[in-house]
Amino acid sequence: MARELHVEDLTDLARGAALLGTGGGGDPYLGRLMVEQEYLRGRTVTVIGLDELADDALVIPTAGMGAPTVRVEKLPTGREASLALRTLEEHLGRRADATVPVECGGSNSMVPLLVGAQLGLPVVDADGMGRAFPELQMVTFGVYGMSGSPFALTGVHGERGVLDTGPDNRRLEWLARGLTVRMGGTASTAGFAMSGAEVRRTAVPGTLTLAFRLGRCIREARERHRDPFQALTALFADTMYERAETIFRGRIVDVERRTTGGFARGRAVIQSSSDDSVLELEFQNEHLLARIDGKIRVVVPDLIAVVNAETAEPITTEGLRYGQRVGVLAIGAPAIMRTPEALSVFGPRAFGLDVDFLPMNDLT
């Protein structure tokens, strides 16, 4: 059922999106502020369910592309994503009926809300990742047969263009990434244009609502002086993710981070607060793998979230700092993200990790 987002909802939604972002997707704080500015201008955002889309509706996903660290330092004007959507509309010769997140995690949860507010388009309660991933072919849209082309990109100086690689989404990522680097390391995008029927077939459903529920869960647990980690575990058990578990608590003792090839890559080391155990994280924008004392404990596409040890406030990869006391959550990926087709696109080996995927339940 269509519902109008209240401006008060945005903080909870952004917090939950940061959790689902598994460290990446960009910090939603800036995106939230830009959406709030649209509300101050009298605009609003309407969220609709998958079942409210007409089969022949044109839905154009919108997102930001580039290294999250750059996006924090190189602030956008706020109109780039709307320009990308309009550019793609011009190319297609048809107006969009709705937009939808490419990923529900991090700042890319906010981009379609901003576009929806600016252009008066409803935002579909779904996405193509159920989390955040660093490369544009790593979406359930593409896994289940949709082409990202034609694909529009815009930069902060008003530059824009359209790429078309036919059905080859990997080549589209390679070319679009190169353009994003030339645009200063960050760009806004519109691609994977689909019909309403195709969105229903290929998207991860209900993820904007889930992000809102997660953010509210953390806030209310803190307000009521309850354990937010326990509250999150209980909430996830009643979703398509099925399981969440706090696998580690400790202090960050080392962070290595570099921006290269349009990605933020690196590792972080966390020393246990209760014994001599050590957890090591590897990330490419998002956390990909967690080892405890050298043994793999969680691996992509299952989710790894680093949060403040006391408040459970999510911490992005660019926000990791020496000395922070953190908790590490492992969250099971939905079934749509664990099929052989999906794992071939965003399983461990797609990131160059020499391991096969095993669900977090099998790695305890």
From TrEMBL:
It comes from the Bacteria. Coiled coil: none annotated. Pfam families: S-Me-THD_C, S-Me-THD_N. Residues 168-360 form the S-Me-THD-like C-terminal domain. This is Hydantoinase. Transmembrane segments: none annotated. Residues 8-164 form the S-Me-THD N-terminal domain.
